[in-house]
Write a structure and sequence with these properties.
The structure holds two protein chains of two kinds.
Chain A lengths: L1 H10 L14 H15 L3 E7 L5 H8 L12 E3 L8 E5 L2 E2 H13 L5 E5 H5 L2 H6 L6 E3 L9 E3 L6 H14 L1
Parallel strand pairs in A: 1-2, 1-3, 3-5, 5-7
Antiparallel strand pairs in A: 4-6
Helix pairs in contact in A: 2-7
Chain B lengths: L9 E3 L7 E6 L2 H13 L3 E10 H4 L1 E10 L2 E10 L7 E2 L9 H12 L2 E2 L51 E6 L11 E7 L2 E8 L7 H5 L4 H8 L7 H16 L5 H29 L3 H22 L8 E2 L2 E2 L5 H27 L1 H7 L7 H6 L5 H4 L35 H24 L17 E7 L4 E8 L5 E7 L2 H11 L8 H8 L4 H4 L1
Helix pairs in contact in B: 6-7, 7-8, 7-13, 7-15, 8-9, 9-13
The chains are: A alpha/beta, B alpha+beta.
């Protein structure tokens, strides 16, 4: 137990604002977090739905919860059921085999709800979005299936871009 | 050249890729006999896919890749086209159980069927008719709202488990975490799992149809998104296949840079998995620590390669981008730092009794089972099998640059979650060593050569990715574009092992066992 506690102490809080200039995105993360909290004033819950991605977007959505971005530490939480969610974070292209499941998840999310489409495939933009457009197996971008409030392009979008997208959706609401 | 004294003449594939032999099989009976011989010698089925060659030869083709001690053998069996009927070939699932789902997928996509075994649809859920096959040249379809095929709900014939107190728990396709979709049907008595049956295909987005007719560069983009967490492995296997087909050898510096990226991909995924495994055993400290290390790792990727996951950096003919001495020095420094941290964290994991209590004996599979299921990669090595495309073994020489790196295979004989954790730790240390070694001895020279398509040529690429063996088979069309490309993920085989691993454990252990395999959905759903 003692080595474990020592490790925790030595690691410290890495989310704190830093004075060094070359930390890069750290100040931006802080600013986004503060703005999110100011707008929300409480918790935001997100249900992630992978409707056909290559799992690249999921890797970056996972990263949102690491100590650098610390989304959950700010009251923004990924939840297990759409019934508990304020926002759906959907990656695509939406496959035919997931179309129905996505609609059910959307219907299960209580109103008012927000939908953020994630990634070039989910947004239907960029070269990759074109390559993964509609075909016999896919319905194409997320807004071909459910109404989308905000799009976060990128292949995959960085955690910072995802934070900005979540913020943009909350601002609109 | 002959294998197992079977009357099939094999020729070695040219080039500097993984060792592959190609052979043509005349009759279905010969395929069956060859498969039995491979099985008898301890070999495995590595991939199986179909091809519509009616335009060239009035035939369909069944491609099978078998993994044998010396490397891989790729055999083709031509099946005469019979109007609209589904031509059939001998069922291999009785010899290699892992062939079953590949055969079902081949039927759904190409319309050639095994003459026995499981005939339920696999990738086709209801989005297109049963008599329409997306990978046939003459299959047209319309897209857009209100046109095209109706997306009909489908029923799936799960195997029922009966008896007093037995009941089912359906899970998915949308799971509780941030994870890809798939359906798991548990049959349980109380908490004990009697049987798990997976139904996948939810991620099917028609990648192979998109690859057909694409040029090499477009193919690079598509193949790098078959399974995003293994993008470097896929891109390398694809490049290897096309280079073998076109008779092009990438420069030595390019090969080392590819291995450089592949090892960085391996470490990134292992770091993430080790954290998630801690978390699934209620040890959130592990997740926090390992995700911190992974983020540091990915940020250096972004600086060095311009992309956090190094997508689209391995291209046919070489690599896009180069590393200067400063970059290489930073990698060495990072490897030192991360190595120290992981070593300390391993001690904490090993000493934590609560964690070990969850890991030990949970989700165990045996080496015999792994071999029967044709498994490869990390999960197979965690049963004690010394299988690895990067390592020497008797009769097998790994492809460059691994032939000069002397990779030590990490194995563990326990076959449980603890073993898969231990193998991941060992592989991180080995890959860190390889990265440092490559960084200080990087060959000089170009990183990319021109590659001109050779119409009609074929090639097979095999790369030992972080999960296991990634295979790409490619045929170039008469127009110099890709006629047929088939990517194969090691998860095809390992998903079967997961079904076995949960038997006799309890339902709450499933997330932990599942994470310990961390299989790709997108990679097998295509």
């Amino acid at each position: 137990m003692i080595p474990l506690l020592k490790k925790i102490l030595r690691t410290g809080v890495i989310t704190e604002p830093a004075v060094e200039v070359d930390i890069g995105p750290r100040q931006e993360i802080e600013r986004l977090n503060d703005e999110l909290l100011r707008i929300l004033g409480r918790a935001l819950t997100i249900r992630e739905v992978d409707a056909g991605s290559c799992n690249g977007c999921e890797l970056e959505i996972h990263a949102l919860n690491n100590a650098y971005y610390n989304l959950e530490g700010r009251g923004i939480k990924f939840v297990a059921s759409p019934r508990h969610a304020d926002m759906l974070l959907v990656t695509g292209p939406v496959t035919k085999n997931m179309e129905n499941a996505l609609r059910i998840a959307y219907d299960c999310t209580p109103d008012p709800k927000l939908v953020v489409a994630v990634g070039d495939c989910g947004c239907g933009c960029g070269e990759v979005g074109q390559l993964f457009g509609e075909n016999y197996a896919t319905c194409g971008p997320v807004d071909n299936v459910v109404a989308v409030d905000v799009r976060v392009p990128g292949c995959p979008p960085t955690p910072l871009a995802l934070m900005q997208g979540i913020l943009a959706a909350v601002r609109r609401a | 050249m002959l294998f197992y004294a079977e009357p099939i003449e094999f020729t070695p594939q040219a080039g500097c890729g993984a060792p592959v032999w190609l052979g043509q099989i005349a009759e279905g009976e010969d395929l069956l006999r060859f498969a039995i011989a491979v099985h008898g010698a301890g070999g495995r089925i590595a991939a199986l896919w179909g091809e519509d060659r009616r335009r060239e030869a009035e035939r369909f083709r069944l491609n099978c890749v078998f993994g044998i001690n010396q490397g891989h053998v790729w055999v083709a069996l031509d099946l005469p086209a019979q109007g609209d009927a589904c031509p059939s070939y001998p069922d291999l699932s009785g010899i290699f159980p892992a062939a079953s789902r590949m055969q079902r997928a081949t039927r759904d996509l190409v319309g050639i069927a095994s003459d026995g075994g499981d005939q339920r649809p696999w990738l086709r859920h209801g989005g297109w008719p049963a008599d329409w096959f997306p990978l046939r040249h003459d299959s047209v379809h319309e897209v857009g709202v209100g046109v095209g095929f109706p997306n009909l709900p489908s029923d799936y014939d799960f195997v029922q488990v009966g008896g007093e107190g037995a009941h089912e728990i359906p899970v998915g396709p949308i799971h509780a975490g941030i994870i890809e979709p798939g359906h798991f049907r548990f049959s349980v008595v109380g908490e004990r799992v009697l049987r798990l049956e997976e139904r996948l295909g939810y991620q099917h987005k028609g990648v192979e149809r998109r690859l057909a007719g694409a040029d090499f560069a477009t193919g690079t983009r598509l193949i790098g998104r078959v399974s995003g967490d293994a993008t470097c492995a896929y891109a390398w296997a694809y490049a290897m296949a096309l280079e073998a087909a076109c008779g092009v050898a990438p420069p030595p510096r390019a090969l080392v840079l590819r291995a450089f990226m592949l090892e960085r991909e391996r470490i990134a995924n292992h770091l993430g998995d080790l954290g998630a495994l801690g978390n699934d055993a209620a040890f959130a400290f592990g997740l926090t620590q390992f995700m911190r290390l992974k983020e540091d790792w990915l940020r250096l990727n972004a600086e060095l390669f311009g992309h956090r996951f190094m997508m689209d950096r391995i291209v046919p003919g070489g690599v896009a981008g180069d590393l200067d001495p400063t970059a290489l020095r930073r990698v060495v420094e990072q490897c030192e730092a991360i190595g120290r941290e992981v070593k300390a964290l391993r001690a904490l994991y090993d000493e934590h009794s609560g964690l070990q209590d969850r890991f030990l004996t949970t989700g165990a599979i045996t080496a015999e089972l792994a071999r029967e299921l044709s498994m490869t990669g990390m999960a197979a090595r965690a049963t004690g099998l010394i299988l690895g495309g990067r390592c020497y073994r008797q009769g097998y020489t790994p492809p460059p640059p691994y032939d000069r790196l002397g990779v030590r295979p990490a194995t563990d004989e326990r076959g449980d979650v603890a073993a898969r954790v231990a193998v991941r730790f060992d592989e991180i240390f080995e890959s860190l060593r390889l990265l440092k070694e490559m960084a200080v001895a990087m060959p000089e020279g170009d990183v990319r050569v021109e590659i001109a398509p050779v119409p009609g040529a074929t090639g097979l690429g095999v790369v030992e990715g972080w999960r296991g063996e990634v295979i790409v088979g490619a045929r170039i069309g008469p127009d110099g574009r890709l006629a047929r490309v088939h990517p194969h993920d090691p998860s095809w085989q390992a998903w079967l092992a997961l079904e076995h691993a949960v038997m006799n454990d309890i339902v709450p252990d499933f997330p932990l066992i599942n994470k310990s395999f961390n299989l790709s959905y997108s990679g097998v759903d295509l």
